[in-house]
Write a structure and sequence with these properties.
Strand order of the largest sheet: 10-13-14-9-8-15-16
CATH topology of the largest domain: Aldehyde Dehydrogenase, Chain A, domain 1
Number of strands: 18
Largest sheet: 7 strands, mixed
CATH superfamily of the largest domain: Aldehyde Dehydrogenase, Chain A, domain 1
CATH class of the largest domain: Alpha Beta
Low-confidence stretches: none
Radius of gyration: 25 Å
Structural class: alpha/beta
Helix content: 40-55%
Number of helices: 16
CATH architecture of the largest domain: 3-Layer(aba) Sandwich
Shape: globular
């Protein structure tokens, strides 16, 4: 089904059209210009798919893509050049370089929760690195997917960048084709399926997944400020964010105060009835709504809990006294506006709860205590760590973004996006005038003696 598309792109790539710096920059500028033309349609589509307010859409998707493209254009002239590295002194006359070359044909599979950002940001990285690409957005964000199709089809030839639609069957057919790199953003289950398909062809993969991202709030934290930051990060996009806080571990001495301030922050953001708020999103579809509704029964609701199936609304919800740290709500990624609160007496207990679970995409720590900051830094493993804030580590071009273990593999954003779609070629340039004869047989005892002295 997709064989012709892949073959046409491979023929196009073989002509080296995508290699020159001028070509890459021209395509990145064209992508940015098209996004600008479709800004209003992007905002309208996300309002229809997720009830997303324009402010969130611009801040979390459109503006972020512009920043990424600008960063790539600015730095690409430097990255594209061979990078000199040191050469062992006894390699007489030789010089060493690394060169980042494109993989070839990239497959980009993107999710529904931030459909434009998580499609067009890796696409920009693929273009900057000199690849062709086939893009497969999610079938769930119907309105956004249509706009993505317009953006891609009106900007690029199909032999360079191609858009495909469909669900799981189409994705499985795509994965049976021969790609040079696969970039997948989505669930851990989906990531496993992609990795298994890629392994059959030894295709490198970048997996941007999710996980149960903990917030650890220590007793010395500024509870009011911490609560605002946690509530904002948790309830933006109705919790449907891969780096959103998934649960809170808070010192028992400040637990009630934190819950009180979380309630205050939520009411300040969305009012007493968030269903009437213009700034509060909705759940993407009925299946996700029903899954989240079932999780509301796994603890004592101290705030929120209201829901409406017709509009796929679930209010910002805080759950105290989770029945068990092994219950379903603590085993799977919530990916919705439900926030469990769990108390602890000792920071070591909090670290143990985090460390005994699959490695998350992010850990959030609220404390001014340098020793506790160091302790959590070294006692937990995660794709990223953000201290005294939430999600900011994932929104800068200067920090590589990605997971570890169950939360993913590989990195993107900024230079990491360029490297994700590039093969690092190692080049050693010697001279025919330099010929180290001592390396050839028959070997002499003196040569062996000198070698042992030099390489001990």
């Amino acid at each position: 089904m997709f064989n012709t598309t892949v073959t046409n792109q491979r023929d196009f790539f073989s002509k080296s059209t995508t290699i020159p710096l001028s070509w890459r920059i021209e395509q990145l500028k064209a992508l940015k210009a098209t996004i600008k033309r479709y800004e209003s349609e992007i905002i309208t589509a996300l309002k229809a798919d997720l009830n997303r307010p324009a402010m969130e859409t611009y801040a979390s998707e459109i503006g972020f893509i512009y920043d990424e493209i600008n960063f790539l254009i600015k730095n690409l002239p430097i990255w594209i050049k061979p990078q000199p590295v040191s050469t062992p002194w006894f390699y007489s006359g030789a010089k060493s370089f690394t060169l980042w070359e494109p993989y070839g044909i990239a497959l980009i599979i993107s999710p529904w929760n931030y459909p434009f950002l998580l499609t067009l940001l890796p696409l920009a990285g693929a273009i900057a690195a000199g690849n062709c690409a086939i893009v497969k957005p999610s079938e769930y964000s119907i309105n956004s997917t249509e706009v993505i199709k317009k953006i891609i089809s009106s900007t690029f030839s199909k032999d360079f960048i191609s858009y495909v639609s469909g669900g799981i069957p189409e994705t499985q057919q795509l994965l049976s084709e021969n790609f040079d790199i696969i970039f997948f953003t989505g669930s851990s289950t989906g990531g496993q399926a992609v990795a298994q398909a890629a392994a059959k062809k030894l295709t490198p993969v970048i997996l941007e997944l999710g996980g149960k991202n903990p917030c650890i709030v220590c007793k010395d934290a500024d509870i009011t400020v911490s609560a605002r930051k946690i509530a904002w990060a948790k309830f933006i996009n109705a919790g449907q964010t891969c780096v959103a806080p998934d649960y809170v571990l808070v010192h028992n001495s400040v637990k009630e105060k934190l819950i009180h301030q979380l309630k205050n922050a939520t009411e300040q953001f969305f009012g007493r009835d968030p269903q009437k708020s213009r700034d509060y999103c909705r759940i993407i579809n009925d299946n996700h709504f029903l899954r989240l509704k079932a999780l509301l029964t796994h603890g004592h609701i101290v705030h929120g809990g209201q829901h409406d199936k017709d509009s796929r609304y679930i209010s910002p919800t805080i759950i105290d006294e989770v029945f068990s740290t092994e219950s379903q709500i603590m085993r799977e990624e919530i990916f919705g506006p439900i926030l469990p609160i769990i108390g602890f007496e000792d920071i070591r207990r909090a670290a143990t709860i985090v460390a005994t679970r699959p490695k998350p995409l992010a850990v959030y720590l609220f404390t001014e205590d340098k020793e506790q900051q160091e302790y959590i830094t070294h006692k937990t493993s995660s794709g990223g760590l953000c201290i005294n804030d939430c999600m900011l580590q994932s929104s800068t071009q200067f920090l590589p973004f990605g997971g570890v273990g169950a939360s993913g593999m590989g990195r993107c954003h900024g230079k990491a996006s360029y490297l994700a779609f590039s093969n690092t070629k190692s080049i050693l340039k010697s001279s025919s005038k330099a010929d180290m004869k001592f390396r050839y047989p028959p070997y002499k005892k003196l040569t062996y003696f000198i070698l042992r002295l030099l390489m001990r």
